[in-house]
Amino acid sequence: MAKLNDTTIMYNARPAEMGLYDASVTGNGRVTAMVRGACCNEQIVLGRSDLKHGGYTGVLQDVSDKFPLVRKLYNDGKILDAEKLLSSEFARKGYHPAPERGLPLAILALDFNVDGLVTGYRRTSDMRSGEVEVTFKHGATTVTRSLFVGRNNDIIAYSVAKSGTDRISAVFSLKTPEGITLQNAVTRYEGGFAYFAARSGGGQDYGLVARIMTSTGTAEHSESALSLKNSEGFTLYVKTFVNSNRDTEFKNLKNELAALKTYDKIFASHETAHKKLFDGCTLELAGAEDVKEDFAGVLSRVHSAELDTPVISRLWNFAKYLAICGVPADGVSFNNSAQLLYSGIMTSILPDNVLSLFDLYEQYEDDLKKNAARVFGMKGYFVPSVISPKSALFGAVDAGTIHFIASSALAANLFYRYYQVTGDVKTLKSRIFPFMREVCAFYSDFLKLDSNGYYSTIPSYSPLSTPGNAIAGRPLKNFAFATNSTIDFLALGCLLDNLCEAAEVCGGSTDAVMWVDMKTKIPPLAVNDAGAVREYTGSAFIDGLVNCGTMHAYGLWPLKNVSFREVLAPYRPPVVQGAAVQNLTMGIRKASYNAVISRLARSGTLQDARSLAICAAQAAHAGLGEVSSAEVRGILLKLLTSCFTGGGLCLSTDWRGGGFTRAAKPEIDVCGNMGFATAVTECIVQSDRRTLRVCPSLFGGILAGKIVDIATDFAARVSVDWDARKGRCVVRIMPKKNCKIDIEVSEHFRRFKGKEKFDKVTGSIKDFALVAARVSVIEFS
Predict the structure, then answer these.
(1) Kind and range of the H or E element at 743?
(2) Which pLDDT tens digit goes with each residue over 49-58?
(3) CA distances in angstroms from 383 to 360, 480, 688, 701, 731, listed in the order given
(4) Cα–Cα distance between 351 and 495 in angstroms, integer?
């Protein structure tokens, strides 16, 4: 175990008093284990990424004959009827799908006989090794309990050791996860083994086999537990199974566990593989390594508005660690959650993870065609934001899910970013490019031209928002229908850019001319009189003032349509009485930033962890120097003070009930963890397909440090060693392909030491040539 002041340690000086909310986590991407409980009792909650419950998939009914009526009702001014029509038609035809959720597999409960006063409790997660350790003293005896999940073999290994005179006595049993009703469940204990199985909603068995090994003391079993007495220490090994036959698995796993070697030997093999992943990219912030207090203490300073390096460094590493462990996130959809989960992972350590998501949709291509044909009467693929189990069919048929037209393009853009990051031309040609073409085929059928020759989207929806219109003098409430949501055109524009680029890489396409023509028909984005980008472009719908959606700022991040190029729009500020009317222009990047800040100011209590994290990344990409840097810092402070626990886990909403976020029951939401780390990364390194931006949004906690091997959108790995206080910065770029990029650096760095032409005013180098597999170094001092 590393030293407590190491930034790769999550250290807690007290038991997990909030249960899973501040539990310690380990895992290998497939199997997870969360440690909670106290000294006398410890519980290990086991999970599998492939174990789900609930959800329902029916036969997607054909309601496409009603789709033209949706548009007619809108054109006739009957928007309330238009909103409900398709949902009502699905209900009438008996289609009631539901998405599935993650199901905890079982709880390993260990009750220890601990006499006397307990002191020196310490619970640590070594993020570089993947081992969770609990130590404490009672009397003259020190107890150490260690846990990891084998990266090479899926074995959950748990060791209990002691030093001192007292021996260890414990009772081991298997518990049912809270709130779960089991089907066909069986638990039994015999001969040092424990067995558990139940049946999932899909009708298949899941469960585990556990083995306790001890060389001293006595071990006996009853109908409800395995008991150990007077032991010098013991080891518990567990293997899980899902979607299989319990009798077969009981026999096979028992034989496998019986042949295992010692804890130390299994751990050594696991640790090598885990460290290789964890060290795939690193962040070292100056001063972060000097703090020895537990994370709850580090986090407490955030409540005094101090966002210092120790909390940033540990949470950045913790997000990377959670990605490696594979803590599941329910409700992955192509709005905030998918962007937060996969964008950060692709930039840091696990770009291939998004391919597992792509595999799912590629497996169910026929479902994607059904979605397009049976709901909208269109060709091509439609990717809904929510899908039902073992399919890619609509997983919900509420108005918001049906009308969220941008979800298909957002999915395709996320998958294309895998190619941008990795340069994997083979996967682009054989899989991603064909998928994108089918998604575009849907839009080419769905989109209609307005009287000005621009595309319109009818129906449409901007998630988490309600337009500001009124009907008969009453404002709309929880209304999930609009036209021309800005996110539609941002997502479509990005898709068309990606298709045109992919066509060049793949040797051309006969459709390229069509895609270029489609780009000319995307309406220009508009700015309202408050200087914010409009949520609805060229639409009868107007922005609502009190909403928590910021998808109309997706052009900043994650789509980056406007982050790296200046797009201007007409802007007419409020007219002061007697003043001349001013015809001005405003950059869409600044207007998008204004939209984010306006929503936070007006609707801060409606946000959740995901939306706050998105807003932080968007503000970082605004590129407004100290102004946007201060806003990023403020948003991250709000996220930390409202949603993070002393164990480092992010919850979906304000678990303290302080009114800082929307009122809802908090749940563990690792999207917030990933989003926090992603926002910090975007403050240090940003990229698009031909631009690298260095240290654009620095604030107090990240003024100096070193970040190593961050992936970019031009298929290169970048490392930056910087100190803004001294004006020093060294950038190293290792590209996977030949290309030319523009490099932009923060105003902190202006003393360039290279031969290339450097513009001190803009802080940029144009057309910097990169050669595949050759390191380029740019230095400022």
Answers:
(1) strand 739-745
(2) 989 888 899 9
(3) 11, 18, 25, 40, 39
(4) 20
- pLDDT above 80 for 382: yes
Residue 509 burial by Cβ neighbours in a 10 Å radius (0-12, 13-18, 19+): middle
Residue 89 to residues 66, 397, 477, 668, Cα–Cα distance (Å): 8, 10, 22, 35
Quickly state the pLDDT bin for 675 (edges 50, 70, 90).
Answer: very high
Task: Give SS3 for 507.
Answer: coil
Partners of 173 in the β-ladder: 109
Rounded Cα–Cα distance for residues 68 and 461 (Å): 17
Q: At what angle do helices 336-347 and 353-363 cross, to 10 degrees?
A: 130
702 touches 683 (CB < 8 A):
yes
Q: Are 263 and 235 in contact (CB under 8 A)?
A: yes
Average pLDDT over residues 522-550: 95
CATH topology of domain 9-53+103-279: Beta-galactosidase; Chain A, domain 5 (2.70.98)
3 state SS of 102: strand
At 2 the pLDDT is: 64
| Interval 218-248: pLDDT, tens | 889 999 999 999 999 999 999 999 999 999 9
**Residue boundaries of the structural domains of the chain:** 9-53+103-279, 64-94+364-606, 687-780
First-to-last C-alpha distance (Å) of the chain:
37
Under 8 Å CB-to-CB from 568, ≥6 apart: which residues?
Answer: 585, 586, 587, 588
User: Strand runs (DSSP E) across 183-305, as ranges?
Assistant: 183-190, 193-199, 205-213, 218-221, 226-231, 233-244, 282-285
Q: What share of the chain is helix, strand, coil (3-state, %, to 5)?
A: 35, 30, 40
Of 289-298, 459-468, 720-729, 743-752, minimum mean pLDDT range: 289-298
- According to DSSP, the residues that pair with 227 across neighbouring strands are 171, 220
Determine the Cα–Cα distance for residues 547 and 570; give it in Å rounded to an integer: 24
Q: What pLDDT is recorded for position 659?
A: 81
Classify each residue of 7-44 as buried b or exposed e, where b means 16 or more C-beta atoms within 10 Å of its C-beta: bbbbbbbebbeeebbbbbbbbbbbbbbbbbbbbeebbb
The reported pLDDT for the residue numbered 387 is 95
* Three-point CA angle 694, 695, 697, nearest 5°: 130
Residues in Cβ contact with 393 at an 8 Å cutoff, skipping those fewer than 6 apart: 57, 60, 97, 364, 367, 370, 371, 384, 387
What is the side-by-side order of every strand in the sheet holding 226-231? Answer: 24-27, 31-37, 41-53, 101-112, 168-175, 226-231, 218-221
* Distance, CA of 345 to CA of 313 (rounded, Å): 17
User: In Å, how far are 14, 135, 377, 479 from 117, measured between CA atoms?
Assistant: 15, 14, 71, 59
- CATH of the structural domain 687-780, one choice from 3.90.1150.10, 1.10.1040.10, 2.30.110.10, 2.60.40.1180: 2.60.40.1180
pLDDT value for 330: 59
Burial degree of 186 (CB within 10 A; 0-12, 13-18, 19+): middle
In degrees and rounded to multiples of 5, residue 474 shows phi and psi of -110, 130
Q: What pLDDT digit, counting tens, does each position of 691-707 carry?
A: 999 999 999 999 999 99
Closest CA to 455 of 479, 490, 416: 490
